[in-house]
Amino acid sequence: MSEKTILKLQLPTDPRWVTNVVESNIEEILTDHAFCEQKAASNAITLIVQNPNLSDLVQEMALLVQEEMDHFKRVHDIILARGYVLGRERKDDYVGELLKFLSKGGGREVQLIDRLLFAAMIEARSCERFKVLSENINDPELAAFYHELMISEATHYATFIRLAKKYAETIDVEARWKEFLAYEAQVIQNYGKKETIHG
Q1: pTM for the full model?
Q2: What is the mean pLDDT of each run of 10 residues along the chain (199 residues)?
Q3: I need a surface site. Which of 79, 136, 143, 158 has the fewest CB within 10 A?
């Protein structure tokens, strides 16, 4: 199954986000993007800390941490090359709203599957945003960079979905993923207006 058929986001990003917001706020976007990569690495580390007995997950998350921090450095390199300095971390309201959807109880299996699907959701939306950026930004360097990262995010998304299916014993992952998609479609309606990757 191709990435296009499994990336089932219900609400696409308006390309005008790039022309109206991103292009006049490149420094802001790059800072936010750098911290998104750092937070993705932190999330993978948290999954390792919480599930040290799941050796396959530990191995895959260890590789993911390395890749996310490599992306962080590459964004930081672009920031420096353009004469900018990494700004302060921004609060990610989109991720905060997604966190509200995670199950509050239900034991280790429920917590693990929801955490993996939460990560998959962020990767899916980041992938979609990077695609919109790569196709609409009037900046050849960033267009090529975001096209490359779009492919990487799609791979990460698929990894989290695969791990959720692997470790789910009593949970219907497909059904829970559909619930995540429906919730995310409501959340994302309020975004696409700010100079952040998910904003």
Answers
A1: 0.92
A2: 54 88 91 96 97 97 98 98 94 90 90 96 93 94 96 94 96 95 89 74
A3: 143
